From TrEMBL:
The keyword Secreted does not apply. It comes from the Bacteria. Residues 76-282 form the Radical SAM core domain. The keyword Zinc does not apply. CDD domains: Radical_SAM (cd01335). SUPFAM superfamilies: Radical SAM enzymes. Pfam families: Radical_SAM. GO terms for molecular function: catalytic activity; iron-sulfur cluster binding; metal ion binding. Keywords: Iron, Iron-sulfur, Metal-binding, S-adenosyl-L-methionine. This is Radical SAM protein.
Amino acid sequence: MHQLIAAPFLEQHVLVRPGSRGGALLPEARYDELRALDPSEPAPPWLVDAARSQWDDLDVTGQSLAEFLLVRQPSTWGHGKASWEVNLGCNYDCKHCYLGLKMKAGMPWEDKRRCLDIMAEAGVLFLQVTGGEPTIDKDFMRAYRYAWELGMMITVSTNGSLLWRENLLRLFREYPPYRVTVSMYGTTKASYDELTQRQGAWDQFVQGMNAARHARLPLRMSIVVTDDNGHEEQSMIDLCKTWGVEYEVFTNMTPTIYGGGEVLTAQSKEHLRVRKQFTGCNAGHTFFHMDPFGLVSICKIGRDDQISFPNEGIEGLARLGAIADRLMLRTGGCSGCSIAGSCRVCRPLAKHYQEAKAPLAAYCQHGDRKQGELNDCCSS
């Protein structure tokens, strides 16, 4: 079982360790050297020093490469990251959820495994496993283990409700995740259960977090602020600090992936924040998203013109870059806008807001102006 991974990542080569946030850049010559060495050979002195320098608890002196190192092969596709919705089902029914329908459906195991093989071939090093709630999926554990064995650094995005289960804790001990990101919906039973629309959700969250912290999982909290729990924003931050867990605060709600606006009612108007100007991203070029049915899109938001891994294989990725460029350039309801060059959201997300008939303040800088000052393109 590997403790280190040497892999290409975008335009570089890296040395990373599952369960650790740290890593080191590898000169291309050193990466090529590792590829050429027989796995039965001992670790070269420079690798022993590099490992000890980056991780002071890791000493590979005298070990053969096969005992601790996995060398990922180069990929011509250049996709370093991906996200995967294992399922859309969830044991919560959160008011703000952007997935909309909670369907417990997906691919059979053989298709899941094939899709993971394709991801590895595409060069994916960092994989986010999400849902729905991924840990309720019947294939979650073996899919996680298989992706780990392929040499992926895995982030699990979860509501934390099942992190107390010994089978999950044992899995994470044996196959350390890169990160476990837990969504946080309040600091009291009343607000937490109300937002998740599940009685007892708060108790499950606390039980899961106590177990995860005791197991020293690499935790990160996503603090979700809505109309139900907005008054607890500071107490959620304070609790994360007490736990010694890093966190990020999310206050702006988004429509469902189907363009539905029903979830926008969860928005706390007092906590609606002005987004920074959108300056572009590499969606579809260096990373992609896969849904529970193996349909690949440029990201979680821009799901038009999906590619089917089960049907097309890795060759379908050849079309993804052009799809991304087309989706980012599409103007739709913003055609003719005089300030389109300084938008705060990407075009796929703006399209969802427009379909949901969301107030302009939720996504567009025109919403900052008085109604009489709006440009013609937004005043209809």
